[in-house]
Fold this sequence. Notes:
Blueprint: H1 13-22, E1 25-27, E2 34-37, H2 39-60, H3 66-87, E3 90-92, H4 93-96
Antiparallel strand pairs: 1-2, 2-3
The chain binds zinc ion.
Amino acid sequence: MTKCDCCHRSFHWGELFNNILSYGSTHCKSCGCEHKITFPSRIAVTSMTVVPFMVFGLFLTPFKSNGLTIAVGLLIYVLGLMLTPFVANYKQASEQNV
Ligand SMILES: [Zn+2]
């Protein structure tokens, strides 16, 4: 799990998960430092969520029912989304623009 660049406190899963859902910035609860997700991490988040959903829905489609395919695809999407806080890297907001 990524750590705060200022005080080195580990972010909690819930903090990062909420941030990934909102695509905003997150503030360290200990020191208040603002952090933003890095661009490679955004690509990783997309490749863990949307890409498996699309590949499953468009190419694999093991079920004859479209509803079941979409339901399982959404389940894969949600599972991927729940794992994203473990791979997402964050940088202090002011350092990312340098
Ligand atoms: Zn901090």
